[in-house]
Here is the input.
Amino acid sequence: MKSIIVASANPVKIKSTKTAFEQVFPNENFQISGTESPSGVSLQPMSEEETLAGALNRLEFIKKYQNTADFFVSIEGGVRESRGFYEAFAWIIVQSKKLTGKAQTASFTLPRQINGLIDQGLELGHADDKIFKRKDSKTKNGSVGILTKNLIDRTEYYRHAIVLALIPFMNSDLYKA
Here is the structure.
């Protein structure tokens, strides 16, 4: 059985990781756990660079304190400004002792009301809760689920990018150092 540690206790991030690994490696069994890990960046990362730095910081934290796992997974959501609107996206990093894979989710434009709350210092999940009168939406369907009317929920949104981050593991002969 292979072990996976996700740099988060968020059930959405753990579930999306589990689903992606089971799809990519259907003949393997996985034991997955999540652990809170600091990003070392703003609660709401506001650029590509800051979001990627947060993902890398979370990854290094779990590797330092949970270094016996076969795979380490870090997911960091962020926003970036694009033509007067914010776009939401996330960086995903998957690492083993031999390989690293990195991918980004698709991005989507956030509504002006949410942009305003982010400008006031709110994290995207808290802005969603306020605008859509929800509680803890980031551990459920998230912005993407709310805005797509659950055609794409947060678990599915991350799953695609985790599969993309696993490309080096599916093609290790092409990605050897």
Summary: The beta strands are 2-6, 30-34, 71-82, 85-95, 100-104, 108-109. Residues 48-65 form the longest helix (18 residues). Helices lie at 11-24, 48-65, 112-119, 124-132, 142-147, 154-165, 167-170, 172-175.
